[in-house]
Amino acid sequence: MYISKVPLNMARPDTIRFISSPYKVHAAVEQSFSPLAKRAGDDCRILWRLDSMPKAIKTLWLYVVSPDKPDFTHVVEQAGWTDSKRWQTKSYLPLLDSLEQGQVWSFRIKANPVRKVFKDQGQSPREGIVGTVQGHVTAEQQKRWMLSRTAAHGFSVRQSQNGEPALIVSQSTKESFSRGQSTVTLATAFFDGLLEITDVVEFRKVLCSGIGRAKSFGCGLLTIVKPAV
């Protein structure tokens, strides 16, 4: 497994067009691997996320976790920096091998929090709504969605000093983009928090295979760092 990050130059018009569609980014990420490269398995798959850093005003980062080593030359040419700033790729195995039950990490994930509709709860009947998948739109709904998935993935969210889960929901939005002749609409949000590993095997899996739906479109990649002291 590998983890990579590619700096994208937000001062370039081509970059703005590139990031405007998760489908375009998905295609570019797929092209970073040879046709014979492993793309998905029982415990791993290609995951990616667009993310920013507070001090990098004109830079957006493309994070990618993958079973095989990528080549992002075409991404740099299309949306990156033309100087020496290129991508960084390193083995994910040292981190995965260092994980232990009880460890505490800061985490970040962009996810697609959704629910399957079993009963129409609207004020007026809506034909065809039952059985569909709908996005959670309020921060409280999204927070409950995230908390309901932690145990199965080998971690729990720690409590903050006020007794509430140490979990912040931000950048909640609806993304719409073209995919062929159709339009895709996704409800997405970022989740930042503090976690504790409860099951090392399951937690390794989630770092390599992600959480939730829309993984091809930039959702599901969970990343961790040592918490600030």
Describe this structure in words.
The protein is of the alpha+beta class and 229 residues long. The chain has 2 domains: 2-95, 2-Layer Sandwich (Alpha-Beta Plaits); 99-225, Alpha-Beta Plaits (2-Layer Sandwich), CATH 3.30.70. Helices cover 21% and strands 33% of the residues. The chain is built from 6 helices and 11 strands. It has helices at 13-19, 22-30, 73-79, 93-98, 139-147, 200-209; strands spanning 2-9, 47-52, 59-66, 88-91, 104-111, 114-116, 133-135, 155-157, 167-179, 182-197, 222-225. The strands form 3 sheets. Strands 5, 8, 9, 10 and 11 form a 5-stranded antiparallel beta sheet that branches. Strand 2 and strand 3 form a beta hairpin. The chain is globular. The mean pLDDT is 88. InterPro entries: CRISPR-assoc_prot_Cse3 (IPR010179). This is CRISPR-associated protein, Cse3 family. It comes from Coriobacterium glomerans (strain ATCC 49209 / DSM 20642 / JCM 10262 / PW2).
Strand and helix map with partners:
Layout: E1 2-9, H1 13-19, H2 22-30, E2 47-52, E3 59-66, H3 73-79, E4 88-91, H4 93-98, E5 104-111, E6 114-116, E7 133-135, H5 139-147, E8 155-157, E9 167-179, E10 182-197, H6 200-209, E11 222-225
Coarse shape: globular
The CATH architecture of the largest domain can be named as 2-Layer Sandwich
Q: Give the helix level as a range of percent.
A: 10-25%
Per the CATH scheme, the topology name of the largest domain is: Alpha-Beta Plaits
Give the SSE string.
EHHEEHEHEEEHEEEHE
Major sheet details: 5 strands, antiparallel
**Average of per-residue pLDDT values:** 88
Number of helices: 6
Query: How many strands?
Result: 11
* CATH class assignment of the largest domain: Alpha Beta
Classify the secondary structure makeup into a structural class: alpha+beta
What is the number of independent domains? 2
N- and C-termini, Cα separation = 29 Å
Q: Which stretches of 5+ consecutive residues score pLDDT under 50?
A: none
Strand content: 25-35%
Per CATH, the superfamily of the largest domain is: Crispr-associated protein, domain 2
C-alpha Rg (nearest Å): 18 Å
Organism: Coriobacterium glomerans (strain ATCC 49209 / DSM 20642 / JCM 10262 / PW2)
InterPro entries: CRISPR-assoc_prot_Cse3
Protein name: CRISPR-associated protein, Cse3 family
Pfam families: CRISPR_assoc
